[in-house]
Amino acid sequence: MKRYLLTPGPTPVPPEVLAAMGAPVVHHRSPDFRPVYERCLARLREVCRTESDVLLFASSGTGAFESAVVNLVSPGERHLVVSAGSFGERWIAMTSAYGAEVDRLEYAWGETPDPDDVRSRLAEREAKAVWVVQSETSTGVVADVQAMAAAAKEAGALVVVDAVSSLGAVPCETDAWGLDVVVSGSQKALMTPPGLGLASVSEAAAAACGSTPRFYFDWERTRKAQRALDAPFTPPVSLVAALDVALGILLDEGLEAAFDRHVRLGRAARAGVKAMGLELFSPDEDRSAVVTAVRAAEAAEIISGVRTRFGITLAGGQGDLKGKILRIGHIGWFDVFDITTALAAIEIVAADLGLDVERGVAVTAALEAYEHTQVA
Amino acid sequence: MKRYLLTPGPTPVPPEVLAAMGAPVVHHRSPDFRPVYERCLARLREVCRTESDVLLFASSGTGAFESAVVNLVSPGERHLVVSAGSFGERWIAMTSAYGAEVDRLEYAWGETPDPDDVRSRLAEREAKAVWVVQSETSTGVVADVQAMAAAAKEAGALVVVDAVSSLGAVPCETDAWGLDVVVSGSQKALMTPPGLGLASVSEAAAAACGSTPRFYFDWERTRKAQRALDAPFTPPVSLVAALDVALGILLDEGLEAAFDRHVRLGRAARAGVKAMGLELFSPDEDRSAVVTAVRAAEAAEIISGVRTRFGITLAGGQGDLKGKILRIGHIGWFDVFDITTALAAIEIVAADLGLDVERGVAVTAALEAYEHTQVA
């Protein structure tokens, strides 16, 4: 059976990128690797829109996020963590584990953080850094990072952004918005298999490193090595080569074009879901361009049904949302026909499960929303 | 030009393993991945010869080693670290970075640690754990881990083994020798690209976890997830699938047969080096089955020459040995013709550089040493 990976991470990987994954292994200190590494690091800076170093780690995105925590957090320091879902909760747990005095700005899962709340919380209590999630993959909410960063900057705080599922899909203007640290991973909009984490690190963040012991995720060690086109520890050469190819594809399309495509993919997914009469869980807004979450009491049965009958992998809910939502990812190597595939399969399975869905309209609605919309 | 990767890591990867690397990405919580994951974890226990959990990390081998440090070291505790090369020094630096009171048992690079020194040092001063390197990749020395572990056990200390370049190449009897933690990586004798670290963790080690803050490399979090065939953070699915294939190849050959082959590869390499009149840096002994180091003032020129003329990548020296030795790796997907290729190329380049090498004998000596030796 033909398989479709339509989850928000790992995401489908283009064949050219898979070919790089399967190429013979080269030595990381040889001329076979260095030009690839140099180009990949340059492309990462371009995708992050920063002049700062983008540090690469052999790790998941969570590992790269841990690099921010162990470098920036000293025990007892106050940090403001904004949370509205699974990943926000993970960063609260992680900053707490490393001894930060964590000021939590918490929302119910599915709510959109309000930059004014960041501003007023910081007015009450200072924080060394504000930690925000750009795309909360667990709910489909994309937050206004630019506005939250502005609030943090006004208060003199550093800004750390979890852009794991958003980098390359929605705008993330690292330098223009004053984002001190932007963390991401290879396996989302960057169209590469999982195993590489990355963190852009501003000069201010590098200068603010704290006293928490660290070694593997130490920024200075990694930065020094990368500047000499080396790595402190054997890098995952196959993944770096694959990421380089994937970033080439992304930059050939152009970042603005990619952002535009993701907005339209989100519109298409939402239009289709609404047309067949299912209920959206993620916000019905353009910023929600990463993952579309659908509320359905039969979510687990639908996910299992599209998998068994059609070879399609969708994502379920996490935490309290388990069994209550299903999630269609649309980041990275996606076009509108991936959306129509997901919608058509959901429609058939939902109808067979006895849900009250309107037949024969979702695909057309999605195609029209994708085609006939202009992105501002 | 045809390329030959003859370094002690990354090592050449069999085509079947590369094919797994290049296969479409699957979701880590789907039925596409779970059986592969389950089999890979079982094979890892078989290769480590342990009934304990073998924990997988998206990291280099150094990351997996850091997992041992952050889980076992509490600030101020005394730990004995045995060092005779680059990696021993790295573990001194790492355990020190995490606040251990490090008792160093240091040897000159190229010396072989003496288990009696471990015994007498522990008699002078207790240690919570003894940290040893099985194969010091920087020098070609393979230490007697079994005897060192016995000395540690007598003193009631835990034993942590860096088996990054040795696991799968030389015997490492985790349970039979009482090794509490065995750390390795995918990119050496396990014939897989870099990016996966692993650590077997005994019940005693799991029970001895300390107070150092940790999250990404926390053993308990990883163990709990793995026992449910999950992972705490998105695992590098392509690397896990590739490792599973590689471990299948290794176990089809049989561990004893693989150990035997590595002994004979080492003998072949040393016989050839000596036959052409070059000087061995690594010990001329069967245990030295991972990498053969050759002392030569012209090491850099030879390495550069075989690369330019023949597409062969060898390794140079690290630290103070830079420019003084060259290293031929022979771990993993190697047979005797990889050794003769390295020797023939070194011979030609060395002769052209004006070194006093005997021509036409190294290849034959290597083939005979490989063929006509019986491993005890």
Structure description:
Two copies of one chain form a homodimer. Chain A is an alpha/beta fold. Chain A has two domains: 15-253, Aspartate Aminotransferase, domain 2 (3-Layer(aba) Sandwich); 254-371, Aspartate Aminotransferase, domain 1 (Alpha-Beta Complex), CATH 3.90.1150.10. In chain A, 42% of the residues lie in helices and 16% in strands. Chain A has helices spanning 15-21, 34-48, 61-72, 86-97, 115-124, 145-154, 203-207, 219-227, 237-253, 255-275, 299-310, 336-352, 362-371; strands spanning 4-5, 53-58, 78-83, 101-106, 129-133, 135-136, 141-142, 158-162, 181-185, 196-201, 279-280, 291-295, 312-313, 315-316, 325-329. In chain A, strand 3 (78-83), helix 4 and strand 4 form a beta-alpha-beta unit. Chains A and B meet through helix 1, helix 3, helix 4 and helix 9 of A and helix 1, helix 3, helix 4 and helix 9 of B.
